[in-house]
Amino acid sequence: MRASVDSVSITQKFFHHLTRRPPFRMTIPTFILYPADRSWRISSSSAGKRVDIDVPVPDAAAPAQIASAIRRALQSQSYRGQGILLALPSAWCHAATVSTDGIPKEDRAALVFRLEEQLPIPAESFTADFSIHAARAFGVAVPNDRISLLVQALESAGIGVQSIVPAAILAIDVCLARLQSPTALLVLPDAENHLSLFAIEQGVPIAWALVENDPAQLDLHTQLLAAELPATGPNAAAPVIACGFAGDPDFDTTALSSIQAQDLEINLPAHSLEQAAQILTGRRAARIEFRRGALAIGDPLRLHRRALNGSLAAAALFFLIAAGVFIYRSIQYDHLAQSYETKLANEFRAQFPNWPVPPNVRAIVRSEYQKLTAAGSSTLPLEARQSALRLMRDVLSGLPATANLTLDRMTFNDTSMEIQGHCRSREDLNALIASCRTAGLDVPLPQVRTSADTAADKG
Q1: CB 377: neighbour CB atoms within 10 A?
Q2: Is 164 helix (H, G, I), strand (E, B) or coil?
Q3: Dist CA 312 CA 323 (whole Å)
Q4: pLDDT digits over 343-378, tens only?
Q5: Gap between the Cα atoms of 205 and 207, Å rounded
Q6: pTM score, two decimals?
Q7: What is the CA 394 to chain-centroid distance, rounded?
Q8: Burial grade of 167 (CB within 10 A; 0-12, 13-18, 19 or more)
Q9: Count of Cβ atoms closer than 10 Å to residue 242 Cβ
Q10: Is the dihedral angle over the CA atoms 294, 296, 300, 306 positive or is it negative?
Q11: Other residues' Cβ atoms within 10 Å of the Cβ of residue 202
Q12: CA–centroid distance for 66 within its chain
């Protein structure tokens, strides 16, 4: 399937399971291939429009030749590699009902061997699927040598065969959705003027026969399949329902008059396309699916391969671009760091012209600064101690002339000071604190000791 179509299909299926509502309908083209011995039929729909075309097949044509002709016909219908449904003719299939007694649930291998007992081909040579109801399993098989080479040729030609089902089973599901009676005999038109006759019990097929369109043959097989159904009363018989003949007005329905069949006026080709669309988009599973076992998809991701390759290429391109951006930014940061180092070295030479420039100017400056700040003000050089004089000047000049202070001891350095003395009142102390703050100091709460006639403070 094409990348965009398949990603939308997966998203539709995901939200359908979350909300349990029908997914968003999109105009995704749906294709059904009806193979036959003389000609194939392609049924497609897009935007609600159905188109049927016939593709002639030459006698003794090789599978590769058939696939090439089908590919050209599909391209004329705007096919872009999405998954298609292969609807096999009834004449290619074998059907039988087997008992499920003594078989564990989902043990398909045991059912295949029981089906083998009723078919003329060995289990290793066919692919089968089952519709299980109560104690019986309705099995349908197709010989591998009849279909496997065709499927391989179609896949090699770029046609994604996503699902393989019998055409009659695809059609009967349409009829079962509109069937009023849970137990009945269903008659459907089939290829080459044949009839498909199904025995239905509780809405599930339990037997299938391909019958010639002849009153005697139809009457005989109707009685045989009616014997497969449970008796509903002493004189009651299962109704015979004709389904799908309204969509094929050219079909000879003379044989139906011999069994007095009720008619369900259903356009099978159109409704089969709807069924196929639901199967291909994952909204429902086919009742009988042959895309398993020997006919299983060899590469389950083949329909997603283009999308995956595109995603991987986009991811690789993104990481390459990101790596290029990171490398470019790292080169920018390296040039910026070099310019800062050069600027710092020039400033070091300007401040210390007699010193050789160290390899790491920043580390040397930080080390010298830590030495100065840890040593205290007494070890500072003369030019550093001069700032303490300016601080003392700023503090003392800020005192008002009326302040009555006695200073016993003062210690000043470039960033701090300590004063011990006496004052007469709290106003004088506040004047000293205000002067210190004006000089740019952060003054903590002073330590005050009072006496009978004098307030002693230490700050």
Answers
A1: 16
A2: strand
A3: 16
A4: 888 888 887 788 788 777 778 777 877 776 665 545
A5: 6
A6: 0.63
A7: 75
A8: buried
A9: 23
A10: positive
A11: 10
A12: 35
